[in-house]
Structure formats: C-alpha cells, structure tokens
C-alpha cells in the first residue's frame, strides 16, 4: 500500500502545502509526509479526529447529514480534513498564502485512491 | 553565467535521491533547480527520473515548466498535453497551458483551459481573473476584426466569433448565479440570431431556473420576452431588464454593444455572485424591521437574549441585522447568527425556530477546535468550515464574537468568504 506516494503527489500539486497525512478516526496516523518540522501529523491526529467527531454531531443536529470535510484557518496556517470512508480522514496543512481551492481539489482527487488502497 | 550555490533544500533532496535513486524525489529536486535558475541541471534530473517513472505527472509538469522557462514553448505545451492525457483534471497543467496560450495570443485556447479549471474548481479566484483577462483580450481582438455592416461586407467575410465570447460570458454569469445578466446576453444573441433554437431553449431554462431559485418571479423580464421580434425586444430590454442596473451604475450607463461588458461588470459579477443590484435592493432589510417581509427575504428573528440587546443601542442592533440580512440575501444562505464567545445569540436571521440552541451547538465546534488548535500551537483560530452532505456550517471569529453561517450545498463558498470578510469589517466597526 503506497499511501506515502499518494500523499507526496498531493503535496507536489498544491502550492504552499506543508504536510499531509492519512489518519484513522481513532487518531492513529497511518502515513504522513511533512515539509515543515513544525507540522507533525503524528502529534495532531488524535486532536483532529476529536474535532471531526464534534463536527459530525453538529452537522447531524443541523440536519445536514454526515460531515465530509472540515477546514480550519488560524493566523499561521490552514488545515483541511476530508473523510475517507467512515473510518479514516486525510488532512492537508497549508501556508496562509497557499492555494486553498487547489488543496481541496487535490485532496478530493486523492480520496478514491486511498479508498481503493484501504478496501 | 556563474552557477548558483545549491540551496539547503537542493542538498537535502539530492541526498535523498542518492540514497534511493528510484524514489520520486527527483521531481521536487528538479523543481528546486528550476526555481534556482539552474535549468540544465533541472532538465537532466527530471529527464532521468522520468525515464524510470514516465507516468509521474507531477514530474512531467516540472519538465514542462523547465521548457517554459527555457523559452521552448512548443516542448512545454507538449509536456502539459502529455500530463493531461494521463490526468485530464491536472489543474497545474491546465493552468500553465492556459498561460502559454495567453502569451501566444491564442485567447480562445486560453479561455478553454481556464474554463476547464473553473469547472473543476469554481472558487479559484486567480483563474477567474485570468479568464476575465482572456475574455477581454478575445473581445478586443474580435472588435478589431468585427464584421462591418451589410453594405460594407467584403466577399471573403469570416463568421464573427462574437457568439463564443458572449456565451462564455453568459456561462460565467450563470456560474455566479447572476441570472439577469446571463439572460441579457442570451437576449442579445437571440436578437442577432432569432431562429437559433439552442439559444431559445437555454434562455427558457435560465428564466425557469431563476424563478425556481428565487421562489418567486423576481425577474422583471417576462418569460415570453425571449420570443419577441428583435426590434420589440430591444425596447423590452431597455425598459425592463436594464432598469435596475442603470439605477445602480451612477451614470455608467451602457452605450451600445461594444461597451456592454465592461471590466467592472465582469469584476462585479465575480465579486458579488448571487444577485444583481436590483434583486439585492429588493431584499435589503430596512433599518427598522419590516412588518411584511417580501417573499423569499430572510426573516429577522426576534432577539434571543434581550439582556444582550439592551446593552446595545437599538439603531446598532438594526444595523447589525441589516448586515446579516445582506449576507443572507446571498444565494444558499439558510441562517446566520452573531453570538458572543459565551454562546449567547445577539442577532440572527433565517429560520427562527431553535436559533439559540443551534447557535450554541455550532459554537461548540468553534470552542472545541479553538482549544485543540491552541494545544497544538497552531496559531489563533480564525475560521472553521464544516462541510456535510447537504450543507455547510461556517464559523468566523472576530473581536469577542463569532459569526455563524449555515448554508446549503449550493452556496458559492469563495463568494461567501468574501462577503463574510466585508460583513465582519462592518460589524467590527459597530461592535
């Protein structure tokens, strides 16, 4: 299973991307790649999975169905998380000047590849 | 020319490649050389890597960029086309191809590439701008070669390309939900070609779609207008469709076909998206809450927490409501809440049931994420966007407040973010 290759390709296609990872909903990182030492997916996996679970509850309360994506913007970076099936998510961290639209699209393109590898 | 000293990035990537010559690291290494201006080394590394990994599209994009920088445009185009054969949705290749076509003066080619990108990624503002420029240039070119009037038509007259550019503009308007403008374009095209069934059908569809989305026939244009003879139609456009924009344009009235789509028009469509001035005007909420809201307007809910509002002057509350109502007038917005960090809703628009509870619930996402981000030392949280199957929850923090927007999946997120920035600036001044 070449998750790293998919992550590498995603990172290479997005200007301003600093790291990406495939994480289980239990918070355990399956694979990750980072161009920036300050961004360590291993450290954030558990927190991110909790954020997703929280968002899932809210989406459900609002009658919006299952959560598919979360985008977090801070004054340092932008993080995108997208669900891969029901048990995993892929995350991409970007600089503030990165191309967010492209980041989202590249992640969307990567999801079927991960799903194929995970089934 | 003196050779550049390898950067630390290059040294690190080179080391990785030496350790594992079959790895894909050759692509970022070649790109690093390219960025440094060491094009020969970039080419050698990339070419060698591609011999082992010929279907690695990212590397082929790098090779194309190297050719481009070397001034070998044809080779660059060839590489980007190879990429698109392998991955027809490769945005980088589409974008670079579009830029090359622009540079060569092939504006139609550029428009096609940029449109493909916007189909895949409608929120890409950079490409929207590039497309706008390509359309302008194409229109300028067409103006220069525009066919003269019938009595001046030369025998070897070529068919004008006007319709392609106009349809492109109409499509742009449609993508942005700007139905009135799209209808206007189609009416003009029909005036030139009244028998064109495709145009008639398309126009009919747009009118239907506009009325459906508005929930009421907000379009001042009657559906039958598109089958009027051209001479009557002209009056119809002048009297009805143009009434709104003319009022708003403060003297920037459109004069004839050539000045119909100004740069400002296209920019305004991209900036505003959803509705034209006239429609927004209809939906604007007056400073005092209306007794009878017009159909389709977001309802102003009663204040959930009187104690909060009592601290604020009534005119401020009205202004805040007005700002939220303007935001709510954008297509796809279902509810907006302005809450304090304590979860108490200050003002809201949209459905009034359970607003306070839902506002609190949405705020928990923000509070939870805020804590996580702080723990991970990832900076100060500014915005959270949750996308679900049928809609979005967007939370934006400013000062001591959080603006929460609930939207359906039809909303244009790029425009929503722009509108939010503007709304927050206004609110920030008041609060």
What are the defining features of this structure?
heterodimer; A: 119 residues; Beta-Lactamase; 5-stranded antiparallel sheet; B: 431 residues; alpha+beta; Serine Threonine Protein Phosphatase 5, Tetratricopeptide repeat; 5 strands
Explained architecture:
The complex is a heterodimer of chains A (119) and B (431). Chain A is of the alpha+beta class. Chain A has a single domain (3-118), classed as 2-Layer Sandwich (Beta-Lactamase), CATH 3.30.450. Chain A has three helices and five strands. Chain A has a five-stranded antiparallel β-sheet with strand order 2-1-5-4-3, sandwiched between helices. In chain A, helix 1 (3-12) runs antiparallel to helix 3 (100-118). The model of chain A has no long low-confidence stretch (mean pLDDT 88). Chain B has 431 residues and is of the alpha+beta class. In chain B, strands 2-1-5-4-3 form a five-stranded antiparallel β-sheet, with helices on both faces. In chain B, strand 1 (333-340) and strand 2 (345-350) form a beta hairpin. The chains are: A alpha+beta (119), B alpha+beta (431). Chain A binds chain B through residues 5, 8-9, 12-13, 43-44, 47-48, 50-51, 54-55, 58-59, 61-77, 79, 99, 101-102, 104-106, 109, and chain B through 24, 27-28, 57-58, 61, 89-92, 120-121, 123-126, 358, 361-362, 364-365, 368-369, 372-373, 375-376, 378-393, 406, 414.
